[in-house]
Amino acid sequence: MKLRAALPLLVLFSLTLGSANAATLVPEGNRNARQPDIPYGSSSRTRAANTTYEAKYNRVLTLLREDEQLRSKIVRTAKQYGIDPIHIVGAIVGEHTYNVDVYDRLQTYYVKAISYLQSAVTFRYNGENVGDFVERPQFEECADADGSYELWSCREAVWNAKFRGKTVDGTKFPDDRFGAVFFQPFYAGQTFGIGQLNPLTALQMSDIVNKTSGLPRLNHNRPAEVYRTIMDPDMSLAYMAAALKVSIDAYSRIAGFDISKNPGITATLYNIGDPEARARALKAENNTRRRRGQGPRMPRENYYGWLVNEKIEELRALF
Question: Do the Cβ atoms of 230 and 197 come closer than 8 Å?
Fold first, then answer.
């Protein structure tokens, strides 16, 4: 398995439009005529909260409409990262429609950010701190990783290949994501803030955000600061933008598709993660299709991205 990109990610990140010019543009709109199936976990959370997807969508839309400060922050952050603000909006709408309900006021996120800074949280599993865990010999191949994205992506790949669902040195590890096992101590699957970020994603994006926005680098040995960062909109929007930009660049560079005009696709990748692996899989599939004399398959939206594209006119009207 190839765990590292051919060039450092920060170098690739700065090559914003050069590779996109040679890529095939993915047009606006959905490829699926009907919304793909919504996972059971999303529907069960919504029922448990005694609400509906429509109510959650309208609530987050109301926040975006009524909070001029939030919209200004989104526009300013998107400009820093060279993306359309609609990509950030799409990710916010998708997360708060299908994950957890949005808070009514942006100020609530700032209050929560301070409370996390004061909390005694740790990144560990079965008593083992993640800092000690990644010192195991299985992670030696990540030692030369260049930057936080390559480093934590490599570690995630090692987890999937050598630990996930396996018994290693007498310990049975869960068949679950690295981020869920080590980085969500409150309960597995929990994400945080206006962008519903996973702490592992924030750690991956740390160097990019430091270089682009000047925010301090995150450290896995200081988990309270990681949680504060992803709860504070002044910081978390930058991490959202970085993750979205990484997806756009990965699909252009690896799969040969320019997804910068389709917020449903970027929202999908924000939701499911691992854009480089997915771009490689799409490239491999299209290579096979080409050998068979078939046309390429374009990236497709999931249930979450489908909603973003379906509501695109209403979302664009915010700006």
Answer: yes
Residue 93 reports pLDDT greater than 90: yes
User: What type of residue is 42?
Assistant: S
Burial label, 193 (beta-carbon count in 10 A; 0-12, 13-18, 19+): buried
pTM for the whole structure: 0.86
Evaluate whether residue 160 is within a structural domain: yes
d(CA 42, CA 20): 34
> What is the Cα–Cα distance from 213 to 71, expressed in whole angstroms?
18
Q: Could you read off the pLDDT of 256-292 as tens digits, one per residue?
A: 999 999 999 999 999 998 899 999 999 999 999 999 9
Report the relative pairing of strands 167-168 and 128-129 from DSSP bridges: unpaired
Long-range interactions of 35-39: CB distance < 8 A, separation 24+: 35/303, 35/306, 35/307, 35/310, 36/301, 36/302, 36/303, 36/306, 37/303, 38/98, 38/303, 39/303
Report the domain count for the chain.
1
CA distance 229 to 231: 5
Containing structural domain, residue 212: 9-316
For residue 309, the number of C-alpha atoms closer than 13 Å in the C-beta half-sphere is: 28
Residue 307 lies in a domain: yes
* Res 110 pLDDT > 50: no
